[in-house]
Amino acid sequence: MKNIEYSTYLFDFDYTLADSEVGIVTCFQFVLNNNGFKNISDEVIKKTIGLTLEQAFIEMTGIEDSGVIERYRKEYVDKANEVMTANTKLYPETIPMIKKLKEQGKKIGIISTKYRYRIMETLEMYNITSMVDIIIGGGDVKVAKPDPEGLLYAIEKLNEDKTRVLYIGDSLVDAKTALNANVDFVGVTTGTTTFDDFKDFPYIKIINNLGELIQESYA
């Protein structure tokens, strides 16, 4: 364990702070079924969570035509407007963890491929919007994770030193993002990525849930 006092904690959203699996799978299956893809399982869909919508549709369908993929994206967003927020639940450890970090004077941010307004809807539902200092969504960057653009932009806007920043995420995309930004990383196994999956990437620790983050305190 590094002997560092982190002052800023930046998080991925889906499968890290929140379980939006039901909403995401519902939206993908709606679009896939409407367009003739009847045999893509829920498990295959879950493994794409964390990718951009465009990347996920390309990976699942093999279609690379940008016009078709954009149509799928729009269909997904329209369906998500109906069902996503109601089917997104913060993990039980999320709010106590955020409150504890704020009591310690830490800055909190979210960097996700999910649209910022969608993240805001969930935070507002739980009345914790004021506890989050910055949100960088998929529409706020030119290049999605694992490119470090969003993570570095958040660090810059928070006027923070990278050496005092910890990024927490559930996927290899998040691990790669932290590596590309040269920021310390903690992996959490609340998604589909296992402890062994994370082993090829630098990390401070791998945890089972966010409750362990405040138990460790990381300075």
Automatic annotation (TrEMBL):
Protein name as catalogued: Phosphoglycolate phosphatase
SUPFAM superfamilies in alphabetical order: HAD-like
InterPro entries with a match to the protein in the record: HAD-like_hydrolase_sf (IPR050155), HAD-like_sf (IPR036412), HAD-SF_hydro_IA (IPR006439), HAD_2 (IPR041492), HAD_sf (IPR023214), PGP-like_dom2 (IPR023198)
PANTHER family: PHOSPHOGLYCOLATE PHOSPHATASE (PTHR43434:SF1)
Biological processes annotated in GO: DNA repair
Pfam families from the UniProt entry: HAD_2
Organism classification: Bacteria, Bacillati, Bacillota, Clostridia, Peptostreptococcales
GO MF assignments: phosphoglycolate phosphatase activity
Organism whose genome encodes this protein: Asaccharospora irregularis DSM 2635
